Amino acid sequence: MIEQLTYNGRIYQNCSISYLKECGLPDTVIQQAIQAKQLREIRAKRDQLIAMTDWQLLPDSPLSEAQKSQVITYRQQLRQVPQCYQEDPEGFAWPTRVDTDPSYQ
Questions:
Q1: What DSSP element (H or E) covers 21?
Q2: 51 — pLDDT class (breaks 50, 70, 90)
Q3: pTM score of the predicted model
Q4: All residues at 6 or more sequence positions from 99 whose CB lies less than 8 Å from its CB, including other chains
């Protein structure tokens, strides 16, 4: 399902791919819309994962400096996710979450 697509001045909203093909939209336009949707979904998930780590870098976080360093690296990898996905959608993999159990040293 494509939420919104504008082509030749016409707006298509909440349309299936088969409907867009029936309407005569070129495959390249449909493929670009699919990729844009996938990228929006990836960014949303990435943003959520980054937000889930915010507390870990607060001054009163119980994490060790080594763990905080790992979290910083993880967050940097998350920020690079959209670019990595665009460069290689087939080989794309999410960064591995770090163990942030405060008792882990």
A1: helix 17-22
A2: very high
A3: 0.80
A4: 67
